[in-house]
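User: Hey, my collaborator sent me this sequence without any context and asked if I could get a structure. I don't really work with proteins. Can you help?
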Amino acid sequence: MNQSVASGTILSLLLTVNFQAADSSGVDPNKVQKAEVVLRVKLLSSGEGSKYRWDKVEVLQVFKNKSGYAFRRNLSVAHYSWKPGIPEGTCTIYLERYNPKRNNWWKLINGSGEEGISHVEP
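Assistant: No problem. I've predicted the 3D structure and written it out in structure-token form, which is a compact way to encode the shape of the chain:
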């Protein structure tokens, strides 16, 4: 392989790695400001309910936690039943308290996956 081809290949690889690193945070900067808690999760099961549905997730990573609550491995997260919830696969979720007086019940920001979800991977 000649030197210019090798240099081009190396440059291409470096650009690819740098692009991926720039988006590797896994967090939406606008949504993170609105949330008390930001987690990377994997959906275990979709919930049931009339007004709220409670999706069960596995907590993979804690990005932000201003609540003082120690998140365990599994967590149930509420969302309005007529709004999208947590999708299949892994994603980042942005949470607010379901009940301001309790720190162990959580819901997606504004009760919806439209505002409370980002970085979805199947």
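In plain terms: The longest strand covers residues 52-65. You can pass these tokens on to your collaborator as they are.
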